[in-house]
Amino acid sequence: QVHLEESGGGLVQAGGSLMLSCTASGLRDRGLAFDDYAWGWFRQAPGKERGGVAAIDSDGETTFADSVMGRFTISQDNAQNTLFLQMNSLKPEDTAMYYCAASLLSGCAGWTSAGFYKYLSVWGQGTLVTVSL
């Protein structure tokens, strides 16, 4: 069973930066490598639906939500089985629980579409990001 664990959340002032990490385990048991998957970050604020923030596919193609374009970057370290989300110029509206997710489906173009999270079944437990004024 693939297990994902996020870290790096915290409290930051508006304009600040955070880097989130998501480390995967159990891949070898399935005979798969980190870069066999597409990976993504989602977030969910209280009372709101979970939405895609950024994703990267097995070819290294990336996609971002319009609200974070130019401020967030997504990257991965295949040797360390780790996904990253670098978040710069943070805004109070970025406050949410952030989750990483994985899929063996090819491509990541749809990951930031509304409701896409419903198609994914491999999730971490989340890490909380709070951005203060």
Give your account of this protein's structure:
With about 130 residues, this protein is mainly β. The chain is built from no helices and eleven strands. The strands form two sheets. Strands 2, 4, 5, 6, 9, 10 and 11 form a seven-stranded mixed beta sheet that branches. The chain has a four-stranded antiparallel beta sheet with strand order 1-3-8-7, with no helix packed on it. A hairpin with a 4-residue loop joins strand 7 (about 70-75) and strand 8. The protein is globular. The termini are far apart. The model has no long low-confidence stretch (mean pLDDT about 95).
Task: Give a brief rundown of this model.
With 133 residues, the chain is mainly beta.
Topology, element by element:
Elements: E1 3-7, E2 10-13, E3 18-25, E4 38-44, E5 51-56, E6 62-64, E7 72-77, E8 82-87, E9 96-103, E10 122-123, E11 127-132
Parallel strand pairs: 2-11
Antiparallel strand pairs: 1-3, 3-8, 4-5, 4-9, 5-6, 7-8, 9-10, 9-11
Please supply descriptive tags for the structure shown above.
single chain; 133 residues
